[in-house]
Specification:
By secondary structure, this protein is mainly α. The chain contains eight helices and no strands. The protein has two domains: 117 residues, Rna Polymerase Sigma Factor, Chain: A, CATH 1.10.1740; 54 residues, Winged helix-like DNA-binding domain superfamily/Winged helix DNA-binding domain (Arc Repressor Mutant, subunit A), CATH 1.10.10.10.
Length: 196
């Protein structure tokens, strides 16, 4: 992977973590997640204007980024690529919700021609890395108390809607949203606390 000489020092550190993450290094994966999760969350919150949706979209954004990390090009800083994914994720969300589509300017000139990722089958090596990342996340989720673990599994592994979770657990939707918020916070703290 050729390094862009115009990258900032922080972008060069990101690049080292990206390269390590591509090889399956879980600590590098965590560092990128922890470095950008708050910035991505607040970026998405400004767009969707709902904390719960922004939290869901943040996890979805990182999921897309790490599933497709081998498509990242050093032509751009990792943060630029990640925010482009966040922009596209929020556009898809808004379209699904049938809300007004917001125009995004990802560069000063408003140009939106930055590549996101190509749709192609991951290499066998990438499939193994993706599996390792999934195993890591499942391990972190399994460390949560049962009520939080079940909520995370239903929402993110089984992709249940809030209504479906409420029906499954026979709880009010407000309770589901509040407990999922707490579950996500605990999950982020577990990941952060493991960082060396």
């Amino acid at each position: 992977m050729n390094q862009n000489p115009n990258l900032s020092d922080n972008a060069k550190i990101d690049l080292l973590n990206v390269q390590a993450a591509m090889k399956g290094n879980q600590k590098a994966f965590e560092k990128l997640f922890l470095r950008y999760k708050d910035a991505i969350f607040y970026f998405l919150l400004r767009i969707v204007n709902n904390r719960t949706d922004a939290e869901d979209l943040t996890l979805e954004c990182f999921g897309k980024a790490f599933r497709n990390i081998n498509q990242y090009s050093t032509k751009y800083a990792f943060s630029t690529w990640l925010f482009r994914i966040a922009s596209n994720t929020s556009i898809d969300f808004i379209r699904k919700k049938k809300k007004n589509i917001i125009k995004f300017d990802t560069k000063d000139d408003g140009n939106m021609d930055l590549p996101l990722y190509e749709s192609k089958t991951p290499s066998p090596e990438q499939q193994i890395i993706n599996k390792q990342n999934a195993i890591y996340m499942r391990r972190k989720v399994s460390q949560l108390k049962d009520r939080y673990r079940i909520l995370i599994e239903l929402r993110y592994f089984k992709e249940f809607s809030y209504d479906e979770i409420a029906q499954e657990l026979n709880l009010p939707i407000g309770t589901i949203k509040a407990q999922l918020f707490r579950a996500r916070k605990l999950l982020f703290e577990n990941i952060k606390n493991e960082e060396v």
